[in-house]
Amino acid sequence: MNNNVETREFQTEITQLLDIVINSLYTEREIFLRELISNAADATEKLRYCRLTENEISESEQPLEISIETDEEKHTLTITDNGIGMTKEELIENLGTIAHSGSKEFIRQLTEVRKAGSGSNTDLSLIGQFGVGFYSAFMVAEKVTLYTRSFRPDSESWIWSSNGAGSYLIEPGDQSNYGTRIVLQLKENAYNFSKADEINRIIKQYSSFVPYPVKVNGEKVNTVEAIWTKNASEISEQEYTEFYKYIDNAFDEPFYRMHFSSDAPLSIKALLFVPGENYERFGFSKMERGVNLFCKKVLIQEKSEAIVPEWMRFVRGVIDSDDLPLNISRETLQDNALVAKLNKVVTGRFLKYLEEQAKDDPAKYNQFWEKFSRFIKEGAASDYAHKDALVRLLRFESNMTAEGELISLEGYVGRMREEQKAIYYVSGSNRKVIESGPYLEIFKDKGIEVLYTYEPIDDYILSGLPEFKEKKIVAAEQDSQDLPDLDAEQPSNAESDIPEDEVKALLDWFKETLGDRVTEVRASKRLVDSPAVVLSSYGTHSMQKMMQIMNKDMEGIPAGILEINSQHPVIQGINELRKSGDTFAAAAAEQILENSQIAAGLIVDPRSMVSRLYNILERAVVKK
Ligand SMILES: Nc1ncnc2c1ncn2[C@@H]1O[C@H](COP(=O)(O)OP(=O)(O)OP(=O)(O)O)[C@@H](O)[C@H]1O
């Protein structure tokens, strides 16, 4: 043996770690390549930095790139970088000892899990997080040989090698270039990592945005640049679009694009796209999240669930933060306080961006709303941290907008009538249903704007919002003191009006006839054209309907208040029948209630109604 060869023991913790790594059947062992490329990129980045800040750099400049060679015959994989390289002291320190107490703790825990007998299939995905990523090479290699020379002038070249069993060798090398070359002699069960196709695939998956060219057998693999780290002014529209198409495998053009960077309080570079279309609205299954999380251009997690809230799942793009520990584990991302902070900042910025878009180009924002409103609504209903901003993004039609024209809550408040007490909304499955229903009458009559809500989620959001800009938000179908001034004189048709004492008797009779199906029957001041209306004592009817659908055992419709319009000919007719003791009056009263419930969008039991309607029809068409 060469006299210059020095055998050195690994620190105990590393021996323990290697024992686990070598025997691991860890299914995602291909991550070793990410770890080694990321180390190579770090070393290259450090060199680039030194070149920028120091004069003391030796020799001709080698290209800043990472080369990978595969050799299927020899079953080797070689990764070469032209980075800072290592001196002998650095080799011993970096690849033989662990200084960080966190890394030691990680290894201690791994060892304990192993002792506890949870098998050899230990989850090693945390390995990178604890600054011991290099050792993941031993998951696939029976021997690792590292040739290195520091970029510092007059440095010597060294060879480090090990089979991972307790010790490593250090000997002088003869490398003239600075940088590091790592040769993996692959284990038999890892020969696939000497195939160029396999390596290309892994690089595309984990490292395609590494900022330096990564070449496999001389061919550049990572064709896509980390364009999010550049200034917006340096990127063409076409580059942005190509990047979007690349990350989302998309064919369409992005609808919106937000590119921002900040240094404080967190270092963030984000490039987010709203896609051209939302396929969920066509019944496709729920989208996965589409934002990839990077640290210094190295992929931490694809389609990260931690970095954006669930309602933002339609957004595609990249978030890169230098503040994240490289290779932070996927398992702990969700609980990581820093990631949570990043999530909050990015979400806030995205919402601000949308608000600006809505202001600058309302027509385009309306198109966005048509496609993506579901997500904004979902957020407004569930994301309490960003509720205010989300609510500002909501849009509605109203009785004062043309079909398809939209208004925000802010716009509504801006044109409220001076004496108006509240923001009003009325629900119904579409514009026609709402406009033919009874709830709008008073508002139409008094020239007050009412927002239309077409989905239960709209009502859920608005009923959860007591106020907007200090104005109460009131459902038109609710029994509320805040409805428009109902005490004002109602138009009266004195000749046919039912006398007041008779109205009282009629109301009592209605209540008696309808029993528990109503909580109260009263004379309405809000109706103009309809004979009656039901008011809910809580929530909107569409929410009640949703409860009816979800809760199959729910018996009937929850009792509400029935208001009748004593000036309506049908009510007056019922009053006459009642007075003459005609039992048909009861059938008519029941039908009035059920018609009102149908007008409210509630689900009425059709069986009893159909036979009653035939009775009513018979009376109408059969001459006596
Ligand atoms: N290609 C390389 N060139 C120069 N130094 C390297 C190279 N690979 C590893 N090193 C040195 O070895 C050290 C240990 O590497 P390892 O991957 O185990 O942890 P790390 O890189 O510090 O942590 P992390 O994986 O979280 O980045 C590195 O910090 C670096 O100093």
What does this structure look like?
37% of the residues lie in helices and 18% in strands. It has 19 helices and 22 strands. Helix 9 crosses helix 14, helix 17 packs antiparallel against helix 18 (584-599) and helix 18 (584-599) packs across helix 19. The chain is an alpha+beta fold and 624 residues long. The protein has a nine-stranded mixed β-sheet. Strands 10-11-14-12-13 form a five-stranded mixed β-sheet, with helices on both faces. Strand 8 and strand 9 form a beta hairpin. It folds into four domains: 6-220, Histidine kinase-like ATPase, C-terminal domain (Heat Shock Protein 90), CATH 3.30.565.10; 227-364, Ribosomal Protein S5, domain 2; 396-475, 3-Layer(aba) Sandwich (Rossmann fold); 500-621, Four Helix Bundle (Hemerythrin (Met), subunit A) (Up-down Bundle), CATH 1.20.120.790. The chain binds adenosine-5'-triphosphate. Residues 35, 39-40, 43, 81, 83-86, 94-95, 128, 131-134, 180, 326-327 line the site of adenosine-5'-triphosphate.
What does the secondary structure layout of this molecule look like, with pairings?
Elements: E1 6-9, H1 12-22, H2 31-53, E2 66-71, E3 76-81, H3 88-94, H4 101-115, E4 141-149, E5 157-162, E6 167-172, E7 179-186, H5 196-206, E8 214-216, E9 219-220, H6 237-248, E10 256-262, E11 268-274, E12 290-295, E13 298-301, E14 316-320, H7 330-333, H8 337-360, H9 362-382, H10 387-392, E15 397-398, H11 409-414, E16 422-427, H12 431-436, H13 441-446, E17 450-453, H14 456-463, E18 467-468, E19 471-475, H15 500-514, E20 518-523, E21 532-535, H16 541-550, E22 560-564, H17 569-579, H18 584-599, H19 606-621
Parallel strand pairs: 2-8, 12-14, 16-17, 16-19, 20-22
Antiparallel strand pairs: 1-6, 2-3, 3-7, 4-5, 4-7, 5-6, 8-9, 10-11, 11-14, 12-13, 15-17, 18-19, 21-22
The structure holds adenosine-5'-triphosphate.
